[in-house]
# Entry
Amino acid sequence: MEYRPTIGLEIHAELKTRTKMFCDSANDPDEVRPNVNICPICLAHPGTLPVINHEAVRHILRVGEAVGGARADFTEFDRKSYFYPDIPKGYQISQYEHPLVSGGELAGVAITRVHLEEDTARSSHASGKSLVDFNRAGIPLMELVTEPVIHDALTAGKFARELQLLLRTLGAGEANLEKGEMRIEANISVSSTDTFGTKVEVKNINSFRSVERAIAFEVDRQIKLIESGGKVVQETRGWDETKQSTFHQRFKEGSADYRYFPEPDLPKLFISEIPEFSHETLHTSLPELPWERRARYAKRYALKESDIAYLCATKERADFFDAITATLSGEKYLITLAANYVVSDLAGIYAKSSVENYATLSAEAFAKLIRLVQSGELSSRGAKDTLLILVEKGGDPETIAKEQGLIQVHDEAALKAAIQSVIAEEQKAVEEYRAGKEAALQYLLGKSMKATKGAGNPALLKELIVAASIDAPAKNPCGIS
Ligand SMILES: [Zn+2]
# Structure
């Protein structure tokens, strides 16, 4: 039997704003002291009134504009009622009937809706106690729901990565999964017919790789269950990172249980009547979007697709590359060379240190390094060594290369002197070369490189050795012993 998996994603992301969603308590994700960014409103004291955060609404509308979704003419907030210690009001203010954005597409996946709500407090449980930190209560939260149109784990992972990149590009949020700033839930079902199978929701996924692994695991689990005569039940499952498997958490409640109704303490929003939120104003406020940047790299620099994917995978990396290209003033050959060095050598250095930090490495210094390679003053080996020092300590590549004795010597007189001594010592190899043995030339080149401490320009050295070997007096011209 052939089974087709169907996956829909629900992604929550905390938005980057100065204050919380409905009060003026600070929205500070780096605050580590518990319960300091709180006030009577986000603690749900009776009689307090929420006020809509304008910046948060704008973030969602810009996301909508970027993905080509339709912004709502009319929108309102709703109360989603449920009881939990991390939800002090006994309800969460969310959006139900009228999301801010409907439709759109990202990374080839159709989006159902994007709406705005508030985050819950953070509970922690340790040594028989339960603690609640209300710093997070009321932080603006984006919820994005995709259509159930994903059929494989990799597409889901790609979508989630692209969304993180988009949020960072727009300045709407940092969306760090490990910090819980972005939370991914996957609704997964499998079916051998045209109708959808029973869907299972998987939560607690805290890395992009886990998104892919959790989906692959769950698809496999459901197929095996059906094949063995079992039935998939509608439930919420968690992802166990250690065991690399999903586990039962609870059976799913229907949406009717939440008793949604419009929040009476907040005004309705007639978005189309707010000039700042017009399609034109939102559109002109957008920076270059990730896919637009990729298209530019392909068109202007004709870089390889895999190189473009690497260069544009994070905003910092792409911004760094853009700064290099600006310094290299559009010289295409140098830009291709620079791309190669970022994708291979620099990536290699960062992979080893497992920190990718563009703070110490200036784009100007990197561009200068590329010019040294192109002019032949630095060999590719010399460039590697110089780059490592540049990344670790910063500085000027030319100064570093000189200090390390890596600048290739183009001075013919200096090189000739080095070659003369090699030729004098390696008469046998010179004879062999003159007899037509090419390997002997390589040997002589190696010796000469060594004599110049690796700083000789190889092409020039080779030329000089050939000339010197021919000129050198033969040791035994008559071949008579
Ligand atoms: Zn507050």
Remarks:
- The mean pLDDT is 92.
